[in-house]
Amino acid sequence: MRPGEVFIVGAGPGDPELITLKALRRIREADVILYDRLANEELLQYAKPGAELVYCGKAPGAHSMPQKQINRKLAVYALEGKTVVRLKGGDPFIFGRGGEEALELAAQGIPCEVIPGVTSAVGAAASAGIPLTHRGLSASVAFVTGKRCQDSEAPPRWDLLAQAVDTLVIYMGVGKLAEIRAELLRHGKPDSTPVALIERGTTASQRVVTGTLANIHKLAESTKVMNPALIVVGEVAKVREQLLALQTEADLRIG
Ligand code: SAH
What is the mean pLDDT of the segment spanning 218-240? Predict the structure, then answer.
């Protein structure tokens, strides 16, 4: 039997309307959907009747399904001839382990297509009124992880990032905010640098906390910012305040 195809699909940053038409079509056509915690579950309503829905995220108090097991499941379903959707939050190739899944499938000769999604940095920044690049304020942006999967992995080069990049968006970083802040200050970022924390970006429960490198760790603690959240560091974070000040006049919608 010919193996079925696997689609590694980006679900977008949270708001279910931010998925692409192509991704939606693949969800509608799938025999099996393996979905993550960060993929909005509302999207599963588009699955065809009888489609098998497999949750791969972390249950409260438990571990998420190990990556190896996910890779194996994707292959097993495909080898049964099924059309498989691997639905992931944001974009599958941005801190999503989609690359590992694609490599594993390719190594087994299983056809696989990657469908991009709006990554949370892009979605959340837009919905918080923060342009990641902005004339005069930022000519470059870097997506950085605050967490390493294994201790053996090299940490991000905070020394270079602090100096060479205008806007930093840090994924998986709120738990390590104090450490990240200290690294950036140590490597010469001024403590007046604006910082925004965006929790559950693009969703109805989005929350944004703004401050500077001088006080953001204290603000995060007092406001109890929780995952999923992003840290945006750079002068562009203050554009949000400018937009908010003008919001009523211009009827802009910033969360
Ligand atoms: N592939 C995903 C990222 C997965 S890593 C993407 O492209 O967005 C998980 C991290 O993404 C979280 O720890 C958080 O930092 C960030 N994240 C995902 N969804 C988010 C959201 N709605 N709001 C804020 N941060 C989010």
Answer: 97
Query: 80 CA to middle of ligand 1, Å?
Result: 32
Residue type (1 letter), 68: K
Q: pLDDT confidence of 26, banded at 50, 70, 90?
A: very high
DSSP H helical segments within the chain, as ranges?
21-29, 67-79, 98-107, 120-127, 158-164, 177-186, 216-223, 239-250
Q: How far is the CA of 143 from the centre of ligand 1 (A)?
A: 11
pLDDT in tens, 129-165: 999 999 999 999 999 999 876 667 888 999 999 999 9
Is residue 232 within 8 A of residue 199, CB to CB? The reply is no
Contact call for residues 110 and 7 (beta carbons, < 8 A): no
- Three-state secondary structure call for residue 122: helix
Diameter over CA atoms, the chain: 62
CA angle 253, 230, 119 (to 5 degrees): 75
Nearest CA-CA partner of 114 in 103, 98, 94, 100: 98
Q: Does residue 243 contact residue 252 with C-beta atoms inside 8 Å?
A: yes
Best mutation site among 58, 230, 231, 232 for ligand 1 pocket (most ligand atoms within 8 Å of CB) = 230
- C-alpha distances in angstroms, 111 versus 19, 58, 82, 103, 206? 23, 27, 11, 11, 37
Residue 124 backbone dihedrals phi, psi, to 5 degrees: -65, -40
